[in-house]
Amino acid sequence: MAADKLPLISVRNLQKSFGVTKVLRGVNFTVSAGQIHALLGGNGAGKSTMIRIITGGIRKDDGEISLSSQRDTEPKIAVVHQELALLADLSVAENIAIVHAASARSFVHARKQAEIGYKALSLIDPHLANTALHRRAADLSMHEGQIVEIARALSTGADVIMLDEPTANLTAGETERLFAVLRRLVTETNIGIVFVSHRMKEIRQLCDVCTIIRDGMTVIDAAPLESLTDVEIVHHMGQPDARNEIPARRKIDHADVGLVLKGPECAVPVLKGQILGLAGAPAGPSQVIALLNGTARSSTWVLEAEGWPERPMSPRQAVELGIGYVSGDRRSKGVLAQLPIIDNVLASRRVREGRVFVRRSERAECLDLVQALKLKAGSILDLPSTLSGGNQQKLLIARWLGMSLRLVVFEEPTRGVDIGTKRDIYELIRRMADAGTIVIWWSTENVELLELCDEILAFDTDGQAKGLLQSSQFNEDALADLTGMAA
Ligand SMILES: Nc1ncnc2c1ncn2[C@@H]1O[C@H](COP(=O)(O)OP(=O)(O)OP(=O)(O)O)[C@@H](O)[C@H]1O
Ligand SMILES: [Mg+2]
Question: Which residues does the UniProt record annotate as the domain ABC transporter (predicted)?
Fold first, then answer.
């Protein structure tokens, strides 16, 4: 169908430098009507930069961009950026309606705002539509915020919707619902959708064609996804083969209990050197995590461990007890935005060791960590804001790597990290466990838990612990059943 293939966005030979770093060196990108287009590439390849140029956030140095609409109006593009962008002091309804107002060049009345907001949110989350319209954006959890942003983008009636890693903050169930809505939008309204993700399974599930960018250049231009295998895609991205097995597990001593997690329904003993996965929607796992990182003011969960209190009273006490914590919210809780990369990487080492002065050997120490994680940075003296999303995530992990900890808590540590580097992070986590550290790891990506954990504690969507799976019982469907979410 010729009409289906109308190009809505056409980018030719796009170029962009930041200072001396050439980030885009010749990107071609064509988005057609009626297609879901996967935009792929490793961390730092230039995906978000291109999206920001197309949507007018930053200026290009060179190249052509043309936009067209299937209607007799100005072409309109809606975007969900990689880092959340809601106005903190406005309500959810206001945040959604503001986009509509800008397009109509008119003030939107409060009642109308609520109507627009309700309609938009109902598309993907009827519960949120009924409960969240009048809440302040600042009070939303990260994943609620993500849903609001997506709903906003979907409801603007744009010709193209660009979603830069929209599923990174969503649970499997929410992702599935989002995909159903995107599919329906494309079929019913023939718009174009651009989807950025590092999760191969999702990409295959949702997308029709893909463009692969590598080091700022297009290496695959709108090829049908069926024409490429996973191995070929990873190869085009310039990443090591993702099929490499994670090295076998060191044997765990079953008498060596490191701590016991006591919840309302159960007590879970965790062995030294064990990797315990937390699966399911945020409600349950976030309570356990808050207990361990010292942010729970009161909690239904307590811990029992030699020399430790029932509950660390503050994040500082948690660090002093030897508990490491990688926050899933890198922007507001993790990255120290005003400090250079080196200070971000070495932060917890300095706190643990009470270092005040910068040691000369720190530079080498930081460079080793940067290399181990393939953290792509211009210089370790640059600010974190110069890093791509996935590389900012690596900053948080680097902070705890190789430290001797009794316990480390990971909250979605591979969020936004590219396929090749995910394998590296899995190996590094495994190595920490092999050295005797207890690892507690929450992920909404069930497959990665199944691959790496020794045991998985599954929570349902109401936050109730539903079962503890041993590795011999690991199975995608069983975990999906227990968590009430898609596998
Ligand atoms: N303001 C800036 N100053 C300097 N360098 C920048 C700036 N913004 C981006 N970069 C660099 O541009 C490159 C591309 O970044 P971009 O965010 O487009 O990557 P990406 O493909 O979206 O990666 P990810 O998958 O990690 O999100 C990165 O190496 C990044 O460090
Ligand atoms: Mg990006």
Answer: 9-240, 242-486
